[in-house]
Amino acid sequence: MIIGIGTDLCDIRRIERIRSRFPLNFDKKILTNNEREELRTRIEKNAYVAKRFAAKEAIYKAFNFSDQNSLGWHQVEILNHGKKGAPIAHLYGNCLSKFNQQLAVGQTGAIHLSLTDEYPYVMAFAILEQITKN
């Protein structure tokens, strides 16, 4: 059963301007250590950061059952399987706790995430799912 849907559109040029003004601080604020490691291997760094920004925004919007203000940037991590693999979301801290609170005994949860970019925009679409184990 779907428990939340979220989407976000982000302008890569906006991220580029912010990153040029605050090169290290913005990346540290938005990205986890693992995401910053993955960023080092990317050619299109601004698009990579914009996708993570949009993905986290979309996931937080899908948390319509919760107070989104209590969710931090480092509580969601978006990594890829390989350089071109599908994005996978990992939840931590308060974000993980709030997600797990939506699950009853015998249920598990999943986050489905789709990211796309066509310069100058990136888009993220997230679905939070509650799955009953058989």
Widest sheet, order of strands: 1-5-4
The SSE order reads: EHHHHEEHEE
The computed structural class is: alpha+beta
CATH class: Alpha Beta
How can the largest sheet be summarized? 3 strands, antiparallel
User: Could you give me the name of the CATH homologous superfamily?
Assistant: 4'-phosphopantetheinyl transferase domain
Q: Give the low-confidence spans.
A: none
Description:
- This protein has a single domain, classed as 4'-phosphopantetheinyl transferase domain (Ribosomal Protein L22, Chain A), CATH 3.90.470.
- Helices cover 40% and strands 33% of the residues.
- The chain has helices at 12-21, 23-30, 33-40, 45-62, 93-101, and strands spanning 2-11, 76-80, 87-91, 107-118, 121-132.
- The strands form two sheets. A three-stranded antiparallel β-sheet has the order 1-5-4. A two-stranded antiparallel ribbon has the order 2-3.
- Helix 1 crosses helix 2 (23-30) and helix 1 (12-21) crosses helix 4.
- 29% of the residues are buried.
Task: Spell out the blueprint of helices and strands.
Layout: E1 2-11, H1 12-21, H2 23-30, H3 33-40, H4 45-62, E2 76-80, E3 87-91, H5 93-101, E4 107-118, E5 121-132
Antiparallel strand pairs: 1-5, 2-3, 4-5
Quick tags:
single chain, 134 residues, alpha+beta, Ribosomal Protein L22, Chain A, two-stranded antiparallel ribbon, 5 strands, elongated
Task: Sum this structure up briefly.
This protein has 134 residues and is α+β, with helices and mostly antiparallel strands. It has five helices and five strands.
